[in-house]
Structure formats: structure tokens, C-alpha cells
Write a structure and sequence with these properties.
Elements (H helix, E strand, L loop, with lengths): L5 E5 L4 H12 L4 E4 L8 H8 L4 E6 L13 H22 L2 E7 L22 H16 L3 E6 L2 E2 L6 H11 L3 E4 L3 E2 L2 E2 H14 L5 E5 L5 E2 H14 L9 E4 L1 H4 L14 H7 L6 H17 L3
Parallel strand pairs: 1-2, 1-3, 3-4, 4-5, 5-10, 6-9, 7-12
Antiparallel strand pairs: 8-11
Helix pairs in contact: 1-6, 3-4, 5-7, 7-10
Length: 298
């Protein structure tokens, strides 16, 4: 058994989990990694995994993220995003471990111009948003030593996300339809993971709720246009297709979305020293990372 309390990375096979695993590895920090084989909905399974291990940090990347499907299966969303988070928080308390957890801008209604600060009252519109908010509340009720990061429009080189979905559309279709009346800040998982891994490695103690997003505000349609522009420039795609701007109402998604859930990330920079970059700079880094990743494959 290691003398130094370990880091348990939960949801290690997902988009953010894989980025964090890479960041810890780059720092020479070993982690205990688990994914669906250690079900966070089952407190006994979690306790069994932790038994006999010295765990100083639990970094939870596990989440139910199917926003539209959650409208039809709320029990599944709440089981992971609320009950599962409570199970991890209670276990962290028993272990004396610190917990890192990630939430979403979807806990807000998005019906105002000003960015949301951490102390603003949440008012989620969707089942997904309500399940994430309930997870936040259960975490705070069970544990004092935690970092909770609300993140907007997260994307990365792994998993399912808007950028990878748009690249498929650009390759496979002759036209794209993207909403142009929802505004937010895209957030690159690679930069988020670097900041969080640095926090854990330094043994951070300034616990609480933080908002985190890349700098700048755009619509989904504008984001899609930038993705296509950079994909063409880097040779990721071979042709340009028209991107039709549509309203949220015309697009007809199952779950309601906040139209302007902007996050004020000033606190995370001031209190934790996180470095935040403009969304476009991070999108360019995404394409560089994607190229490196694909170049390393046999």
C-alpha cells in the first residue's frame, strides 16, 4: 500500500475522465481508475472498491449527460447525478478524502443578460438540469471538503460532444442545422483537466462552488462555423457545407435549454489561480491535440 493517499478517478473512461487521466500521468501521479464497473449508484459497490485503499482525493467525472433522453427517464438521471453523487460524498466523508465534482450551466434558467455568479439562485428548466442541481445539494449536505465546478458547453477529443458531432456532420451531410439563439461559452476539456489536475497535485484547500468556462460568448451556430473553419484549415474535413441558423423552437429538442446561461468565472481565477483562455484559442488547441492523438495511432 502506498504511503501517500491516492487519487481515485471515477468515470475514467469518459470525455473528461480520459483527459484527467492523461494530465495526472503527465505529472507522474498514479491514480486509481474506475468506470461503469464500479457503479456509483450502489453505495456498497463503492465502499468495496475503496476498502483497504488510502484515498485522499475522489475526482468524479461520472454523470448522466443525455439531456433529451432524461426527459423520458428521470429516474435514471437522478440515480446517477443525484443519488450517485451523494454516495460518493458520504464515502469521501468516511475516508477523510476531498471530492472534486462537476456540474453544469443547465442548473440556471438562462433568462437574463448578466453572467451567473456562484451565489445566484439556480432554476433549471430540464430534468437533466434538475438532476445535476440535486446532486450539488446532496454533495453540500454531506461533505464540507469539496470542489464543485459548474462548466458550460464542455467538449474534447474523447467521448460524445458537440465538436466531434459537428465534424461527423461536415463529413457525412450536405447541410447542417444549428440553433442560433442559445448563447454560452465553449469549454475545452483539455484545459479544464490541466487546471483541475494542478489543483489536486498541489493539495488545494479553498473548497466551494466555482464557475468555469473559456473566455468569450457565442451562439451554437457561431461555434459550428468556427469548427468548420478550423477543420478546413487543418485538413480535418475536405469540403465546406452550409450551416443553417435555426431557432431553438424550430429545432424542436425534447428538453428545454437555457438561452443565455453565461457563467462568471472570476472566482475560480482569483481563488484557485486557474488560467483561462479564449474559446477560440482552446478550439485551436483541440485540433492540435486531435491531430497528435490520431498520429499516435498505429
Amino acid at each position: 500500500m502506498s504511503e501517500r493517499p491516492g487519487i481515485w478517478l471515477v468515470g475514467a473512461a469518459g470525455m473528461l475522465g480520459r483527459q484527467l487521466a492523461g494530465e495526472f500521468a503527465a505529472r507522474g501521479i498514479p491514480v486509481l481508475a474506475s468506470d461503469r464497473e464500479v457503479d456509483i449508484r450502489d453505495a456498497a459497490v463503492l465502499a468495496g472498491f475503496a476498502d483497504g485503499r488510502r484515498i485522499g482525493w475522489i475526482v468524479n467525472c461520472a454523470a448522466y449527460t443525455a439531456v433529451d433522453r432524461a426527459e423520458d427517464e428521470p429516474e435514471a438521471a437522478f440515480a446517477v447525478n443525484a443519488a450517485g453523487v451523494e454516495n460518493l460524498a458520504r464515502l469521501a466523508g468516511r475516508l477523510g478524502a476531498k471530492l472534486v465534482h462537476f456540474s453544469t450551466d443547465y442548473v440556471f434558467a438562462g433568462d437574463r443578460a448578466a453572467p451567473y455568479r456562484e451565489e445566484d439562485e439556480p432554476r433549471p428548466l430540464s430534468v437533466y438540469g434538475r438532476s445535476k442541481l440535486e446532486g450539488e445539494r446532496r454533495l453540500a449536505a454531506c461533505l464540507e471538503r469539496f470542489f464543485l465546478f459548474r462548466v458550460s458547453w464542455l467538449y474534447g477529443v474523447h467521448g460524445a460532444n458537440f465538436v466531434l458531432a459537428m465534424l461527423r456532420v461536415f463529413r457525412e451531410r450536405d447541410r447542417a442545422r444549428v440553433v442560433d439563439d442559445q448563447f454560452g461559452s465553449p469549454t475545452y476539456a483539455g484545459r479544464l483537466a490541466a487546471n483541475v489536475a494542478g489543483l489536486v497535485a498541489s493539495g488545494g484547500e479553498r473548497f466551494g462552488v466555482y464557475h468555469y468556462c473559456d473566455a468569450g460568448v457565442i451562439s451554437w451556430r457561431q461555434f459550428a462555423g468556427a469548427i468548420q473553419e478550423l477543420a478546413l484549415r487543418t485538413g480535418t474535413i475536405a469540403r465546406e457545407i452550409p450551416i443553417e441558423a435555426v431557432t431553438t423552437a424550430a429545432y424542436g429538442a425534447r428538453a428545454p435549454r437555457p438561452l443565455r446561461a453565461l457563467l462568471d468565472s472570476g472566482r475560480v481565477k482569483e481563488a484557485l489561480g486557474f488560467t483561462m483562455r479564449p474559446w477560440r484559442a482552446n478550439l485551436e488547441e483541440f485540433f492540435r491535440e486531435k491531430a497528435r492523438l490520431e498520429g499516435s495511432r498505429p
